[in-house]
């Protein structure tokens, strides 16, 4: 991709797409602190924002400056994975606020994580299988956020897969990377991951644990080892998603080193599951 691919025409088309996710241009301009009349000139292509205003616009939509100048189809893949509304008036208790401030303080360190990943863990719902999902880590204002998309079907299964989308944030606390996300449609599922940070200049694989619940009616608390395989700062999202799904642990489409790590060299083939306590049980 050359510099000629990043044009003001792309900016106009991409800005229109980003704005389409918001119900009110006037309210958006108020939050941005940009005159509505001036903003409409940006939308029509009659004017291009100053570097300062461009930075404010990009921060608001959660994109980088080079991304909003990308070819329109590539920008469309990115903006669909971003949150569409902000809640600047959200009130949080002091304990949570301190965690948020800690996240902001480590922004530069977490920036190294930005990009796309294949995420692997033992399926909470289908024993003997590994789930490969697509995760996208990006910056939004002073925070590091991420989106995760799961396709719950066998990779060779015909028909439309069940697709689940998750959105969350990332924090660096106690020399460990903590990720929290929620299912975006119903909000009825919360997942947590704790990862070892990357100490090298280039990220290849991040490892840790994932804790969540199984699908279906049981909602069993479950945990598994998890791996995040870095695939690039940018990627062809549709193509990457086509590689996601459920795979038997023995599948050749899953790296043997990945399967070896997740199963602890074949010691177990399903996640750890919680059970309810039986107060009447006696040895």
TrEMBL record:
<dbReference type="GO" id="GO:0003677">
    <property type="term" value="F:DNA binding"/>
</dbReference>
<feature type="domain" description="HTH cro/C1-type">
    <location>
        <begin position="24"/>
        <end position="68"/>
    </location>
</feature>
<dbReference type="InterPro" id="IPR001387">
    <property type="entry name" value="Cro/C1-type_HTH"/>
</dbReference>
<dbReference type="InterPro" id="IPR010982">
    <property type="entry name" value="Lambda_DNA-bd_dom_sf"/>
</dbReference>
<protein>
    <submittedName>
        <fullName>Helix-turn-helix transcriptional regulator</fullName>
    </submittedName>
</protein>
């Amino acid at each position: 991709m050359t510099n000629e691919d990043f044009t003001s025409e792309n900016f106009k088309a991409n800005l229109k797409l980003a704005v389409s996710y918001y119900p009110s241009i006037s309210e958006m301009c108020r939050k941005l602190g940009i005159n509505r009349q001036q903003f409409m000139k940006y939308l029509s292509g009659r004017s291009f924002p100053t570097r300062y205003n461009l930075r404010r616009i990009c921060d608001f939509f959660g994109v980088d400056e080079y991304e909003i100048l990308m070819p329109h189809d590539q920008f469309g893949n990115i903006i669909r994975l971003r949150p569409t509304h902000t809640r600047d008036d959200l009130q949080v208790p002091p304990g949570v606020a301190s965690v948020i401030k800690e996240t902001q303080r480590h922004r530069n360190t977490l920036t190294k994580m930005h990009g796309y990943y294949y995420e692997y863990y033992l399926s909470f719902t289908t024993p003997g299988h590994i789930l490969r999902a697509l995760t996208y880590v990006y910056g939004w204002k002073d925070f590091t956020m991420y989106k995760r998309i799961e396709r719950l079907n066998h990779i060779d299964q015909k028909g439309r897969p069940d697709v689940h989308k998750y959105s969350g944030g990332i924090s660096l606390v106690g020399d460990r990377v903590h990720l929290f996300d929620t299912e975006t449609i119903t909000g009825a599922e919360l997942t947590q991951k704790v990862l070892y940070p990357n100490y090298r200049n280039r990220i290849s694989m991040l490892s840790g644990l994932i804790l969540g619940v199984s699908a279906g009616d049981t909602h069993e608390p479950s945990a598994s080892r998890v791996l995040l395989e870095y695939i690039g700062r940018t990627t062809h999202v549709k193509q990457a998603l086509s590689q996601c799904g459920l795979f038997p642990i023995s599948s050749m489409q899953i790296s043997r080193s990945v399967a070896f790590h997740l199963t602890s060299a074949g010691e177990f083939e399903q996640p750890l599951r919680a059970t309810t306590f039986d107060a009447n049980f006696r040895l």
